[in-house]
Amino acid sequence: MYRMEIETINTLVSGEMYYADLRTKLLLNQNKPAIININIGTTFKGAIDDIDSIVQALEYCGYSNDKYYIHCDAALYGLIVSFIKHVITFKKPIGSISVSGHKFLGCPIPFGIQMTRKSNVNSLSNIEYIASADMTISGSRNGLAPIFLWYSLSMKGYVGLWQDSKMCIENSQYLKDQLLKEGISVMLNEFSTTVVFERPCDHKFISHWKLCYLSGIAHIVVMSGITREIIDSFLKDLMQERKK
Asked: Which of these is catalytic: 82, 172, 192, 224?
């Protein structure tokens, strides 16, 4: 849309940003400001980019605060890691954070919310014919979505969200440990609820358990509805499938 040049940054095996490559790309583009989109939970491996390492890379390459903008894509993990560790905070030099309402919270329609600094909000365009400040592409937003968000946050409360986050993290670790016990290659990033493991061979099994896979690996995103009983049932079926 903005006809901007894009630099893709390489990643580690874990899915986390490769910060040495970031430094290389920044040095190659020192004459230009940088807008950096970082992941707080990548889609397949659940990797979390480290804000401090990215800021250090920017400073190392001579970028002052007014020469870069950091956006944190925390669609799923924004409401999980915030209760486990302060991974994302506006005390660090970030510009914005986006979180989905339909993922961890489970709101019935897909939508996202973006939090940013007041200095950025002040630059919102005034859409004359609806007498409202807006900066979305369409110039209008769904008025029902924020009500769903408010309702979900109000019903759960701080303690409820913390309990759900803790349970998801613990159940992810449980699934990882059980897979390891059975001799299955598995990976779980720190503070992540996405368990990555070797892809089962049987397509019927994959279809039955609705597994998302990529080449030779598959993953399970452990949400608050995934109980230990469901995990044990999955493991039992997986062991039978592997014996076949």
From this structure: 192
